[in-house]
Predict the structure.
Amino acid sequence: NAGVTQTPKFQVLKTGQSMTLQCAQDMNHNSMYWYRQDPGMGLRLIYYSASEGTTDKGEVPNGYNVSRLNKREFSLRLESAAPSQTSVYFCATKDGGGSGQPQHFGDGTRLSIL
Amino acid sequence: GENVEQHPSTLSVQEGDSAVIKCTYSDSASNYFPWYKQELGKRPQLIIDIRSNVGEKKDQRIAVTLNKTAKHFSLHITETQPEDSAVYFCAASYLRGSSNTGKLIFGQGTTLQVKP
């Protein structure tokens, strides 16, 4: 039982390159989230998917796109990477709808844009 | 927009002392308040949470208190140990309008150092 699996763990890109961060969960959770974590700024929500087939913008969606491929998988795409997108990216999942349940995090992807 | 303010940003205590971290939130509809611990290079992990229908919850050396009127909640760690050293994040559920998607707004984090 792996929980929430993120790939890759580390990545270095050049400005303008594109890439997709993958997130897969085996917890049968409905909701999935993508965050970025920068020093001194906590975790900021990029996009989320409340249930399979739906996606919505969070606090900082600019420069990103997402795909909820199925119930298990939620990917984050950078179409044209910029140095400001250097960050640690976390995927999280939550059971059920609404609030009142904790989110469970993956191990993160450390992304550097040169 | 909605936000969560967390203080202090850094906290240093001697082993065995207590540590208190405080958060205030702006969304009066928030009803769920988790606390996460993040060790260096690791994922955030839930350590305790509280829902708005209770004022206090305790789990061994960790407790959380909630004051809905004042819109603030606090994490209390007693008898601190070196392994408590980590970054702690508070969060509040975001329920503005008809949105009820389990979204959380996180505080900026508190780096706790427990000196042996």
Remarks:
- The longest strand of chain A covers residues 87-94.
- DSSP finds no helices and eleven strands in chain A.
